[in-house]
Each structure stands twice: as structure tokens, then as C-alpha cells.
Amino acid sequence: MSTWRDEKNQKARARLEKRLSALFPACALSHALRQPLIPPTQRRAVESYWRHRPLLADRLARALAVRSGQPAGWQWRLGSDKEAGLPMSFRTPPAPYREAAFTRGPGHCCVCGQPVYRLGWHCDLWGDDKPNRNATWHAACVVAWQLWTAPPDHLRILKLRQQRRCATSGRRLLKTAEVDHRVPLFAVWSEHRSRPWPELLAFWGAPNLQVINKTAHLEKCAEEAADRAKRRTGPVIPSGSNLGEMPS
After folding, report:
1. Within 13 Å and on the Cβ side, how many CA atoms surround 177?
2. Mean pLDDT, range 89-102, rounded to an integer
3. Residue 222 domain-assigned?
4. How far apart are alpha carbons 159 and 177 in whole angstroms?
5. Is residue 177 part of a domain?
6. Which of 91, 104, 114, 117 is closest to 189 using CA atoms?
7. N or C: which end of the chain has fewer CB within 10 A?
8. Per-residue DSSP letters for 159-220?
9. For residue 65, which of 204, 181, 208 has the smallest C-alpha distance?
């Protein structure tokens, strides 16, 4: 097995170095050469770099969104028209540049709105000011979007960030621990949807994600469900009270 891997890595490294650009990101190259199986192409090396760093990708994607800013006239709204690019649920992160009315077209990222350069990179390392007209995603934004829409897939890294301690109790995380949003997404929709779009993304990103033990998660969900029920039914009026009486 080791002989097979060594031979495969030799071929992959030779293929990678044969077409390696002089301005290829050094961090991605260093990462690629440390992998058990070396990526054979520059693009796969970049994808591997970000796939192993979802928290960094999240931070970068939100920073790029701040640079783009919220499009004029945009509001976070839901819909069922897939062609318009509207999300169907408040659990999907708001993404104005994925909507047909605000998209910036090929060469710009549909998540953050910034130009996409060679290999899906987020800045112009090559200095030719030529976005990749065949790309609509940054490599980092792909991974950030995956974190936002499927945080349980990144449970291991989120556990390491918390030093394997439950975010609510401080006890050691068990194997059944689960990913949770500190501020639930239904509350983001009902209470925070008027906030600027780049700020909203933090509710799906690392600042609002935590790992807690299953028991603590069940208790938190029960409290949130009770809170939602109170909001639907309104204040409880004590029996026997006279609604017609005016306060003295």
C-alpha cells in the first residue's frame, strides 16, 4: 500500500509542478504537498486548501461580502420562484447576488459578489485584472456556503475550535454532540431581517455556530419551541378578568 501511494504521489507531484504557475498561492502549494495523496492539479490543490479550512473560508466570504455591500433596493425575502434565485426557507442564507435581479454575471462570485480570478482565487495574484469569465464561485465561498447550509458536516472542526467542551455546560463533548445556532434562524428571520446583508451572514457562519451535548440541545430546542408558541398565541389573559374595565 505504501509503495502504491508513493508512486501515485510522485506522479501527482510531477504533474502539479509541470504546470505550476509562478504566482500560484504559496499557502495552497504548501498544503498540497503535505497531503497523504497530493492533488495532481492546481485547481484541486486550491479546493483541498479551502476544504480543510472551512472556518477561514467562512471568515473570508463574509469579509468579501462586506466589500461588495448590499445591493441597492435589495431586501431579504422568500419565494418559490427558483429562476429568480429566491430562497424558499429562512434556513437558507440570504444571497442577493444569486438572485436574477442583482446577479453580477460570470466572472463574479454569486455568494459575495466579488470578482473571481484564476483557479477560483479571491484576489488578483497575477496582476492582469482579468476575472475568470467561466467562474461564478470563489473556491473559498464554495466551502463557506457548505458550512452555512450543512454545519453538521463540519462537526469535527467545530469541536476542535471549542477544545471539545460543550458550549453551554462546559463539560466534555460526547459522541452524540450536535451543532446548534446560538441565535435560532427563526429568530433571525423574525427579529433581524432588516439588518444589512453582510451582517446577516454571521448568523449562519462561525460566530453563531456552537457544538453542544445532545441533552443540552434538546432542552434549548424545547425552550425555543415554547417561545415560538408564545409569539403565535400572544399574551395570556387571566380568566375572570374584565376587559372592559379601565385602569384607575
Report:
1. 27
2. 94
3. yes
4. 9
5. yes
6. 91
7. C
8. HHHTTTB-TTT-SBPPTT-EEEESS-HHHHHHHSTTS-HHHHGGGTSGGGEEEE-HHHHHHH
9. 204
The residue range of the domain holding 161 is 150-229
Give me the amino acid identity at 20: L
Does 107 reside within a domain?
no
Q: Is 50 exposed, middle or buried (0-12, 13-18, 19+ CB in 10 A)?
A: buried
168-217: pLDDT as tens digits: 999 999 999 999 999 999 999 999 999 999 999 999 999 999 999 999 99
pLDDT tens digits, 30-69: 999 999 999 999 999 999 999 999 999 999 999 999 999 9
Say if CB 87 and CB 56 are below 8 A apart. Answer: no
Residue 32 lies in a domain: yes
pTM of the model: 0.88
Q: Is residue 247 scored above 50 in pLDDT?
A: no
Q: What's the CA gap between 24 and 15, in Å, rounded?
A: 15
Q: Is the pLDDT of residue 234 over 80?
A: no
Residue type, 146: Q
Angle of helix 54-68 versus helix 42-51 axis, rounded to 10: 100
Give dist(CA 212, CA 121) in Å, integer: 34
Cell of 41: 492539479
The DSSP line for 34-101 is: TSSS--SSHHHHHHHHHHT-HHHHHHHHHHHHHHH-PPTT------S-TTTT--SSTTSPP-GGGSTT
Residue identified by cell 490543490 is 45
- Coil, strand or helix: which one is 119? helix
Q: How high is the pLDDT of residue 244?
A: 45
